[in-house]
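Bit of a strange request maybe. I'm writing a small parser for structure token strings and I need a real example to test against, not something I typed by hand. Could someone generate the tokens for this chain?
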Amino acid sequence: MRARRNGTRAAAAAAVAAAALLLAGCGGDDGGSSSGDRIEGAGSGDKEPSAEPSEPEPGAPQFDLPDDVQVEVAEDATGDEQKDAILRDHGYALMAQQEAYAATEATPNFSKYWAGEAAATFEADFAEYRKDGVTITGLDAFYFREVTSLKDGRAVVAYCEDQSKAYLKNAESGKVDKTPTTLNSYIDARATMEKSGGGWKVVDYQATRGSKECRDEA
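Reply from user aminoacidic:
Good idea to test on real output. This should exercise your parser:
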């Protein structure tokens, strides 16, 4: 994986408004009909897939995603056992985040991998989705993931998100809000993770929309 130009990139604190994370989309594929295999774990959406697909890790969580919701999380393995464990749980956290958006409420998986201010921010977002009667559809991709800091049971994972094929849809009618792809479809994000028992949880989240670097890496 190519090294980041700036491992300590500035990122605005994410006070995420309702519908802010998943409004960006592309005008090509029909988000309402883009079905695919249910993804049961992180790593299946590597931007540079290996010749053989990776098998789910024993004991990996199962994620309940609707057929029209796809999530790709690049494995981005480093060969470093501790960093790869962090990236593994970060991938699970991203899957859990999307599962919760689809359900418009915190799921057991979400509560397992998110805590503190990060969890509270997204839980408020889920509540707004329920209030507005919307949910998610399409493809959300997470990639260019890198552990940029690791000290005393606390780690920072920098990563990109591509929402160019992710959409909102009306939960009752199923009508998809198809939005065009713009630079704002690409998000430069950081997750602060803390060691929790035998795993890692996201406790803080920061993001900046309009990332040229993430667009170029997509």
